[in-house]
Amino acid sequence: MRVLITGGAGFVGSHLIEYIKSISPDIEIFAADRWLTRKDNINHLMWQINYREFDMTDYGSVLGLIQESKPHRIFHLAAQSFVPNSWKAPAETLNTNIMGELNLFEAIRAAGIEPRIQVAGSSEEYGLVWPEETPIRETNPLRPLSPYGVSKIAQDFLGYQYWESYGMRIVRTRAFNHTGPRRGEQFATSSFAKQIAEIEAGLRSAHIMTGNLGAERDFTDVRDIVRGYWMLTEDNVPAGEVYNLCSGTHRTIREVVETLIRVSGMTKPVELLSDEARQRPSDVPRLYGDYTKVHEATGWAPVIPFD
């Protein structure tokens, strides 16, 4: 079997490579990414994979990758995935995420192959969710509150359209917040952890800069998420469907910071300070999901506890 992972040098891609190799070392993996600087995530895996640099927004680059790899399964993770950046660079976010996926689908058609394809969506597609609508099911209305959320809806629906129009074996996933080793320091959990480590090392005073501490999120370990991605590309899972991947529980960002402080063992008092730069123009107040559908389809459930 040959597998292609776009965004393969990223946080999630690196864990997906590790998972695949743990269950079947003989699977040939093509990990494609645009950024050479992200190879730190997969340096320990380079001897086990075929690493390729490519540009999702360049059709020729994508077509060449598909023709070389001829994958049986594709995990489409490549995207501009940092939500705050989507307000700073909305055009780049929309172009990268939407046109990149379109190039992928058209290259697959041109190559005449029929792989199983997973399209990585996001809980940000749901956006504004009313209290009575939680936990969120896949049937919930989509009310995005960021350019990133809009781009992910477009990717999601493009996947559905190519399934209906061309019979491409696409499954769409909406993963809620996930974290774990190698998470980039610009993301909340890693940013908080780094600041705590700097306090412990005497590199900063006893304060942590935060964004909206009242926002409620559903956190899952990335290693559980990639296991779900793999299970959803098995042949017995119906194509054309969309699935939530989440823990089914929620906690405030304040609770996340307090948990990190507790597990660090730090005893000195720490002040939490609001950072205007970390506030979003419009924020989603509560996001937590229901994973019943994916559990019924595959048996998947998260197993790694939050702590």
Report what the structure shows.
The chain has 307 residues and is α/β, with parallel strands linked by helices. It folds into 2 domains: 2-180 and 220-248 and 287-298, Rossmann fold (3-Layer(aba) Sandwich), CATH 3.40.50; 188-216 and 250-278, UDP-galactose 4-epimerase, domain 1, CATH 3.90.25.10. It is built from 9 helices and 13 strands. A 7-stranded parallel sheet has the order 3-2-1-4-5-6-11, sandwiched between helices. α6 (188-200) packs parallel to α8. It is globular, with a radius of gyration of 19 Å. The two termini are 36 Å apart. The mean pLDDT is 93.
Total DSSP helices:
9
Shape call? globular
Number of distinct beta strands: 13
The CATH H-level superfamily of the largest domain is NAD(P)-binding Rossmann-like Domain
Assembly category: single chain
List keywords for this structure.
single chain, 13 strands, globular, Rossmann fold, 7-stranded parallel β-sheet, two-stranded parallel sheet
Brief overview:
This protein is of the alpha/beta class and 307 residues long. 37% of the residues lie in helices and 17% in strands. It has two domains: 2-180 and 220-248 and 287-298, Rossmann fold (3-Layer(aba) Sandwich); 188-216 and 250-278, UDP-galactose 4-epimerase, domain 1.
